[in-house]
Write a structure and sequence with these properties.
- By secondary structure, this protein is mostly helical.
- The protein has one domain (about 40-185): Four Helix Bundle (Hemerythrin (Met), subunit A).
- Helix content is about 50%, strand content about 5%.
- The protein has helices spanning about 40-60, 65-70, 80-100, 115, 120-145, 160-185; strands at about 5, 5-10.
- It has a two-stranded antiparallel sheet with strand order 1-2.
- Pfam families: MST.
- This is DUF664 domain-containing protein.
- It comes from Aeromicrobium fastidiosum.
Length: about 190
């Protein structure tokens, strides 16, 4: 890895994209691109955006080892890509409380353990990825039984629509963090 000129502690910026250098991948290689029309309907549109953000987060983590995923790139923050995967698994789990009204135990024990206890351990990385996939699937299934976007759900009477928009916002915000974290880890840039 080439180091950034004048900053030997930071990697040189680079991208795999050749068509648009500010993108993560060329359009033909980007799994988020679709050749068809956008989905019809409100729920399908929400699902499409959420799916793209979920995929973006995982793409930002691809190709990194456990140490790189656990690296806290912007001290004193405890934020890391691995911590973000764990955090989003925890958040998905919490959203089910909003849907069903039944509180669930924290996945990682205590508040902020998702970030604080993220370590450079391959078994922890695999467990975090499995946790995220499982919790996403369970939350998706819980929401599937509420197809009316205006329906009010158990916790605080939040509407399905508001919960779906909040999920998109949560992933979008953390994908922005992932952009910066990944660039600090190995210099790779792109939206």
């Amino acid at each position: 890895m080439t180091e950034h000129p004048g900053r030997p502690d930071r990697p040189e910026r680079w991208t795999r994209a050749t068509v648009y250098p500010d993108m993560w991948a060329d359009p033909a290689d980007d799994p988020r691109n679709s050749d068809g029309p956008s989905p019809d309907g409100e729920l399908a549109t929400y699902d499409d955006y959420l799916s793209d953000y979920r995929m973006t987060l995982l793409m930002k983590c691809d190709g990194l080892d456990a140490e790189q995923l656990a690296r806290r790139s912007v001290p004193p923050s405890t934020m890391s890509l691995l911590g973000m995967i764990r955090h989003l698994a925890e958040v998905e789990r919490d959203w089910r409380t909003w849907i069903d009204g039944e509180p669930l135990d924290k996945l990682y024990g205590r508040r902020d353990a998702d970030f604080d206890d993220a370590t450079a351990d391959e078994a922890q990385v695999e467990a975090a990825r499995a946790d995220l996939a499982r919790e996403q699937s369970l939350t998706d299934a819980a929401l599937a039984s509420h197809p009316d976007p205006a329906e009010r759900l158990a916790k605080d009477g939040i509407s399905v629509r508001e919960l779906l928009v909040h999920r998109i916002e949560e992933y979008a915000r953390h994908c922005g963090h992932a952009d910066l974290l990944r660039e600090c880890v190995d210099g790779r840039v792109g939206q």
